[in-house]
Amino acid sequence: MIEPLIPEPTGGWLAGRLGYGEAGESLSRHQAALGVRPSGSAEMLRVIEASGLRGRGGAGFPTGVKWRAVAQRSRGGAVVLVNGVEADPVSRKDRTLMGSRPHLVLDGAIIAAESVGAKQVMVAVNRGAAPARLALASAIKERRERIRIELIDVPSRYVAGEETALVQFVNGGPARPTVTPPRPFERGVQGRPTLVQNAETLAWAGLIARRGHAWFQSLGTPAWPGAVLVTVEGGVPRPGVYELPASATIVDALAAAGCADPLVLQAVLAGGYFGAWVAPADGRLLGEVGAGVIVALPRASCGLTETARIMSFLAGESARQCGPCFNGLPAVASATAQIAVGRARAADLERLRRWANQLSGHRGACHHPDGAINLLKSALRAFEVDLTAHLQRGACRGSQAPSVLPVAKTSDGWR
Amino acid sequence: MSGKRLRVNPITCDGRSLCAELFPERVRSDDWGYPIIDERPIPPHLMPAALRAVADCPKLALRIEAEP
Questions:
Q1: Are strands B62-66 and B27-29 parallel, antiparallel or unpaired?
Q2: Distance (Å) of CA A126 to CA A132, A153, A158, B5
Q3: Which residue of A47, A238, A305, B66 sits 20 to 30 Å from the alpha carbon of A68, by its own alpha carbon?
Q4: pTM attached to this predicted model
Q5: What architecture (CATH level 2) is domain A227-298?
Q6: A252 to chain B, minimum CA–CA distance in Å?
Q7: Per-residue model confidence as pLDDT tens digits over A185-210
């Protein structure tokens, strides 16, 4: 379920008043609520540019710039690749959206295709997200489009949602990242200019196309217009997917999930496994929280232990292509685990810090090592007091607390 | 001045560390022997060492990239 927490007219645009939690919205219901889909065009591209929409997959790249880059290279032969992979184990917002409002996502994809000059739309979904896949499959059948829409089942691997990995997989290879350049907008699916765009981003495009850029800008801030879907997990009374203005803060998202006082928490993981541990009353805007993931860490938990779990998961999710990643991350994960269980000395921490510095600065083909190391560095900052205590006195009581993180499965292959 | 910079293909690279020996002015090795490259522009007097590192990489993982 997506919870439209913010009252009309500022919220609930994606979450809306329609039947969430049921099967996907039908085409007739979708059209009854929103009218028929506007066509994509050069003018529509200008509307998207003017809206200031930014990608909701984590990087926050301006959508209009991306569409323009593909349109300039397209010559009518571009491809739109909807990224619904949502590989972060915590995040559920994209699959929830695709499962409940598949037609809005498809509207955005077709509008994008018409605007950039693409004849083909592909929708990539995580193999672990069966309900979303079902909703999309039946939605695709309902539609009469001149542009072909195809569903792609992608392995449940963390890096499989990275855009070059996605393109390589669609082209018949493993779902592993490739070196750049070329970026997909230059050379992607079948060598064609390819617009890889997160599912939520396209849903917003489907609404901007109907309501205009001024409407979208009225929802957020100039830098972060619109609203966002956020998955709130961990120590909150009502974990779930929420829709809030992009100008709302982490504190607002916690409140939406039933946690009125952020100070009952120890810390917040903002942005998922590539994100950062921040103070619970951190003032940053939801628009800035990459990938729309917030995990609340209760005071009774151990942030170092949770970080060790994440590092171990991320080390296991390396595509095993780049030395710094497949050598460095396991070493870093095991050093973090040693600290968490209270078996590390000051020299071990020094070594961990050295490794963290060595592995920073785009050492891999993709951002996997950077994302993992940024998270680690944020943990060393946010849990500095615990760090000293673990080194001097061993593991804290919080190490025994049940994890607030979902159990991540890593058994899938690369094909 | 438009800079020429040393770049590594991290997938091709095998961590043999020759580059760090041949071009220490811009390359050092991490704890696993993989190159940490200083990507500042290469001044002319260092260019021979840079070209040598590129040519002698056993995996042909290095290149010199001209920035526009």
A1: unpaired
A2: 9, 6, 10, 38
A3: B66
A4: 0.93
A5: Roll (3.10)
A6: 41
A7: 999 999 999 999 999 999 999 999 99
**How far apart are alpha carbons B45 and B26 in whole angstroms?**
13
Do the Cβ atoms of A179 and B15 come within 8 Å? no
Interval A365-375: pLDDT, tens: 999 999 999 99
- Chain-chain contact of B11 with A322 (C-beta, under 8 angstroms): yes
DSSP-assigned letters across all residues of B25-64: TTEEE-TTS-EEE--SPPPGGGHHHHHHHHHH-TT--EEE
Q: Domain map of chain B by residue range?
A: 4-66
Give the model confidence (pLDDT) of B5-63 as tens digits: 999 999 999 999 999 999 999 999 999 999 999 989 999 999 999 999 999 999 999 99
Q: Å from B34 to nearest chain A CA?
A: 7
Residue A224 CB coordination number (10 Å): 20
What superfamily does domain A8-217 belong to in CATH?
NADH-ubiquinone oxidoreductase 51kDa subunit (3.40.50.11540)
Q: Mean pLDDT across chain B, nearest whole number?
A: 94
Evaluate the CA torsion angle A106, A156, A132, A375 in order and state its sign.
Answer: negative
Q: What is the domain class of A303-395 according to CATH?
A: mainly alpha
Contact residues of B toward A, CB < 8 A? 9-11, 13-15, 30-34, 36
Beta-carbon separation of B36 and A363 below 8 A: yes
Residues of A with Cβ-Cβ distance to B36 under 8 angstroms = 358, 361, 363
Question: In which residue are the tokens 């592909």 written?
Answer: A122
pLDDT 10s digits, A373-414: 999 999 999 999 999 999 999 999 999 999 999 876 667 889
Cβ of B32 within 8 Å of Cβ of A321? The answer is no
Q: Tens of pLDDT along A127-171? A: 989 999 999 999 999 999 999 999 999 999 999 999 999 999 999
Total beta-carbon pairs less than 8 A apart between chain A and chain B: 44
Indicate which of A320, A322, A353 best probes the interface with B, i.e. most B CBs within 10 Å of its own CB: A322
For residue A180, the distance in angstroms to the closest alpha carbon of chain B comes to: 9
Partner-chain contact B11 A365, CB within 8 Å = yes
For residue A328, which residues of chain B lie inside 8 Å, CB to CB? 30-32
Residue pLDDT, tens place only, A211-234:
999 999 998 888 889 999 999 999
- Cβ neighbours of residue A380 closer than 8 Å, sequence gap 6 or more: A352, A353, A356, A387
Give B45→chain A minimum CA distance, Å: 26
| Confidence (pLDDT) at A46 | 98
**A402: helix, strand or coil:** coil
Q: Which residues of A touch B33 (CB under 8 A)?
A: 323
Kindly report the nearest CA distance between residue A178 and chain B, in angstroms: 8
**Third-level CATH fold of B4-66:** Alpha-Beta Plaits (3.30.70)
